[in-house]
Specification:
191 residues, alpha+beta, SH3 type barrels, 2 domains, 3-stranded antiparallel β-sheet, 4 helices
């Protein structure tokens, strides 16, 4: 059965036309007796539908330091609105809670519910530091993979195994989730 490779509104290079386009629709092709589509094509607004092998996703753009745009994640503290400072003296930073900001404009990112923070503030503080450090940890993992891939025969087995595991995680992070393909309603189902 076929799965969608690209998602709606994703920018792709159409090789046969030599132009950039945006996927307008994912078109599943059904066959009688199958529960899933047998083929998936993509309508990009160029007059015909294209197969996945005719399209190429937009390349990732990296900053000069090798970080992905927007990965300047940082840990900030917000005022605790749901408790008085005296009520949370057992917190690591009484009167505040951590926020991981993932946008240059100081919004977007990770926050914790107040009740969950109060239940285990040390755990939430650790999670916040881990999330804020994730882009830097990812950069280290990418460097490890690149270093081992340059000379795999020279890498010690333990380092090669770490690079292999890091490459699996990198593929998972970069994987674009397939768009949910909704089956068109059949006449027999409508009745």
């Amino acid at each position: 059965m076929a799965k969608a490779v690209f998602q709606k509104n994703q920018k792709v290079w159409v090789e046969s036309v030599g132009a950039w386009a945006t996927i307008d629709r994912i078109v599943p092709i059904w066959a009688k007796g199958f529960d899933e589509p047998v083929r998936v094509t993509y309508d990009v607004g160029l007059g015909r539908e294209f197969h996945a092998h005719e399209l190429r996703p937009e390349d990732r753009v990296e900053d000069a330091d090798g970080a992905m745009p927007g990965e300047g994640w940082r840990l900030m503290r917000a005022k605790n609105k749901w408790q008085q400072e005296g009520d949370c003296a057992h917190h690591p930073f009484p009167g505040t809670y951590p926020i991981v900001v993932t946008d240059e404009a100081d919004w977007g990112g990770w926050r914790t519910p107040g009740a969950e923070y109060d239940r285990d503030p040390n755990k939430m503080e650790r999670q916040a530091r881990l999330i804020a450090s994730a882009p830097r940890l990812r950069a280290i993992a990418r460097e490890l993979v690149a270093m081992v891939s340059e000379a795999p025969e020279d890498a010690p087995p333990a380092v090669a195994e770490l690079a292999r595991r890091a490459a699996i995680i990198e593929r998972y992070v970069e994987e674009v989730p397939a768009a949910a393909v909704v089956a068109p309603q059949r006449e027999s189902d409508a009745a």
